[in-house]
Write a structure and sequence with these properties.
It contains 4 helices and no strands. The protein is mainly α. α1 (2-24) packs antiparallel against α2 and α2 (31-52) runs antiparallel to α3 (59-90).
């Protein structure tokens, strides 16, 4: 029951709440972060279902989920650093500062 509650609430927030906010808000949602987060979430959910299918969770399975989380955090950090560097390099007047 607990896993179904987590899956249902996570899916509800990912799809319904974000869609409702997008419809009634004047804020503009960026496509890339939403797709990134939703994709990582659904892959994690598939992993949780695969792990719990046999009714037992082994230590290596829980460590795999923890490793998947750290991969997600690392991916977010690397992409943010890359996007900031590209933005800084393409901003007017910064090419000279980067070469100096």
């Amino acid at each position: 029951i607990a896993l179904n509650e987590l899956n249902g609430s996570g899916s509800f927030v990912t799809m319904v709440v974000v869609a409702a906010i997008a419809l009634v808000s004047v804020a503009r949602l960026e496509r890339y972060p939403f797709l990134r987060d939703a994709s990582f979430y659904f892959v994690a959910q598939a992993g949780v279902f695969a792990i719990t299918y046999d009714g037992a969770i082994a230590l290596w399975e829980s460590l795999a989920l923890l490793g998947y989380y750290f991969c997600y955090v690392g991916f977010v950090v690397v992409v943010q650093v890359y996007r900031r560097r590209v933005a800084a390099a393409t901003a007017p007047g910064t090419a000279e500062a980067l070469l100096a």
